[in-house]
Every structure is written in structure tokens, then in C-alpha cells.
């Protein structure tokens, strides 16, 4: 099993002027630890599940990833996950392409249906009903695939999006893998099976994750895709690991590794995330030994 880090908090020790330096240290620490994944959220207000008010610091995700691209050399970079409502899909594909080119082929497109209504209303972003958001998500997945097909610069005609050209030059160095966030059984996991290279589940319990993977396998069978080719990632925050509980966390991950989870993603929630990553670094080797 591999380990990744997800950074949701920008209330950094030392204040706003310390954020850039700390994030640069986060990139170095994650790579030195041997982690394979580094991500941020796609939000403009802080979210309650993190335990902070909306007024807490939040940085725009792709700008932050571009900064990290310049301070890392190996680790995979992505948002966990982009909200489909925040950017037109053609522009999103171009943004992720730019990240991929400037990072030397290390960008992943994480994409989901979006959910934070307060953020949308506060900033004047349209927030359609959930059914429409999923329709837009599927069209966005199709548009990005067409944008990354150098043989197809033609139009796209959908219910919600209409593009007269899907020109994307330069093309990505590596076609960005598509990670679809969420574990909804009827829609989200079907989209993973049909369009995704990776999924991201929550470590609610081994039993629940086993069930979600069984649902994903059935969707793969239904659409004729290869279940084994899909990278299974999991946000491991139940409970959220700490430096003091690092060994317990690794033992708990053994059950998920046995189910086929490839990557566990964990979240520092301190004002000094680089030091937290340094302290968690031994978990990378311990997880690798799980198989």
C-alpha cells in the first residue's frame, strides 16, 4: 500500500506570510518520506468537516498545485477533488494540462459533483440541483477525454456544454489520470467504472469499503471495463491518524490493503504540516510492507 498526503488547512504557524514557505517544505517533506500523492481541496471557503469556520484561510487549488509543481520533482499532484461547477470543463482540461506540462507529467484530474452550497451562493456560482450536477460531471469527463485526444479537435454537443472546438495544445506530457471522488453507488461508482482511472473512498470501515468495491466491480462488469486497472484510493480519517497513533494506523490499514486499496491518503491538521509529515514518514515503509 502507498501513502499520500492531503493538505486542507492553511492557518499556518507564523501567519499568512509563512504559508508559501511552509507549503514548499510540505512538498520536500512528502517526497523525502516516499509518499506518492500530494493534494489540496477545491474550495474557496473553509469547510466544517475540517473543524474550522468558513472564515479560516483557504487558497485556490490549482494555483497552489502550480506552486508545488515548482517545489517537487516526483510526487503526483491533484485536487481531491475539483468541483464540476467551478470551472467550464474545457477550461478545466486546459488548467490540468498546464499543471501536467509544468510538473513534468505529474498531474491528476480529480473531479466530483461539488457540494458546498454556502460557497456557491456566497461567491455567486450557480448551484444546480444534484441531478444536474451529475449530468454536468459526466459531460465534463467526456469533454476532458476529448480535449486530451490529439486526434479529435472537433465539437462537443451536450445537454449543458457546447464546444465548437476541443483544441488543447500542447497536449499533456502524460494524459492525466482521472480520479472521481465519492462513493455513491448508483451514480458515482458507475462513472468511475465508465470514465475513471481511480476512485477515492472514505475509510468508514473495512466492511463498508468491501461493499463499495463490490459495487464498483459490478459496474465495471456492466460497462465492460477492467476493475483491476482502476486505482483504489482511500481517505483514511476514521479516526484521523496522528503521530502518536501512527503504528495503530498502519495496523488498521492492513485490512484495507487486503481488500485491494492501493493508496491511503492522510491529512495533517496542524499549523506545521511539514513537521507532521516528517514525523509520519516511517508509515510509508510500514505500509509498503503490507503489500
3D structure, described in words:
With 291 residues, this protein is an alpha/beta fold. It is 41% helix and 14% strand. The chain contains ten helices and eleven strands. The strands form two sheets. The protein has a nine-stranded parallel β-sheet. Strands 6-7 form a two-stranded antiparallel ribbon. Helix 1 packs parallel to helix 9. It starts with a strand and ends with a helix.
Rg estimate, integer Å: 18 Å
Query: How many beta strands in the DSSP annotation?
Result: 11
Let me know the largest β-sheet.
9 strands, parallel
The topology string of helices and strands comes to: EHEHEEHEHHEEEHEHEHEHH
Shape: globular
Furnish the topology, listing elements before pairings.
Elements: E1 2-7, H1 19-33, E2 37-40, H2 61-69, E3 76-79, E4 82-83, H3 89-103, E5 109-112, H4 117-123, H5 130-147, E6 156-157, E7 162-163, E8 178-181, H6 188-195, E9 198-202, H7 206-223, E10 231-235, H8 246-259, E11 263-266, H9 273-280, H10 282-288
Parallel strand pairs: 1-2, 1-11, 2-3, 4-5, 5-8, 8-9, 9-10, 10-11
Antiparallel strand pairs: 6-7
Helix pairs in contact: 1-9, 2-3, 3-5, 6-7
Task: Offer a quick outline of the entry.
With 291 residues, this protein is an alpha/beta fold. 41% of the residues lie in helices and 14% in strands.
Tag the structure with descriptive keywords.
10 helices; alpha/beta; 291 residues; nine-stranded parallel sheet
